[in-house]
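Minimal example, chain plus adenosine-5'-diphosphate.
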Amino acid sequence: SPTPQTASRPTTLAVANQKGGVAKTTSVASLGAALAELGHSVLLVDLDPQACLTFSLGIDPEDIEISIHHVLTKGTHASEVIIETDDGVDLLPATIELARAEADLLTRTGREHVLKAALADLAEQVEYDWVLLDCPPSLGVLTVAALTAADGVLIPLQCETLSHRGVGQLLDTVHDVRRFTNRDLEVWGVLPTLYDGRTNHARTVLETISDTYELDVIEPPIPKTIKFAEAPAAGRSILATSRTSKGARAYREAAANLVERSRRASGKRR
Ligand code: ADP
Ligand code: MG
């Protein structure tokens, strides 16, 4: 596929928030599909033992023999595990086996770097423009490995039920990662999700959080819409199941903004 970016290596983003249900997985699937529509080559990595991303892309984790778990703990080359999906993106799938990875990696030297190393090995064979990492709802080894492998982090936030403490903890982890394992990690910003624009409350919460933590906001907010409930069961993202819905359009626009940002970032790197 075409490589419209000028960067010689992929832009790798960790989509992280230790809170569950804030649309991490939905955002990874939807932004991935939107980037693919723009002609970019995309790899999505499922780092959650619940394997919701894998399932939502039409793959039954129970049908898979090897998964990201083997890449992280057994040295299997990622290219042996990657699956092409109907959404036009490649997937490094997860299964429930990944639940053991945390324990398996705990005694391993360099565990924070296993994903980074696996993606570097992969890059020698396959060139992606984007690698999006779907983090589990915790700040454990897998999330730290994702932040270590990433150029940037996106923080999906549900503006209604937002807990400041959670964001602070995540940013503390980012700070530690910068200090110990990945100096160049940048926070790209918060992605407002499940956004109900009819309430002033949502906008106020969003402004408060971006001011308090000096975080950029990735525009536009992703509206809350029932359409998202239908997509995972169809094995496709909302961009395919509900092409012209508000939600699909918002993710397309957000993806275009990420492309802009990545062009600026790769300009700086050079
Ligand atoms: P996480 O990965 O952070 O746990 P998910 O992406 O799995 O979150 O989303 C949690 C739930 O919210 C899912 O049922 C998903 O379909 C739903 N959802 C995600 N985004 C939206 C949205 N914009 N509007 C309505 N429902 C959404
Ligand atoms: Mg998830």
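The longest strand covers residues 186-193. The pocket of adenosine-5'-diphosphate (ligand 1) is lined by residues 20-26, 52, 137, 193-194, 222, 224-225, 228-229, 247 (CB under 6 Å).
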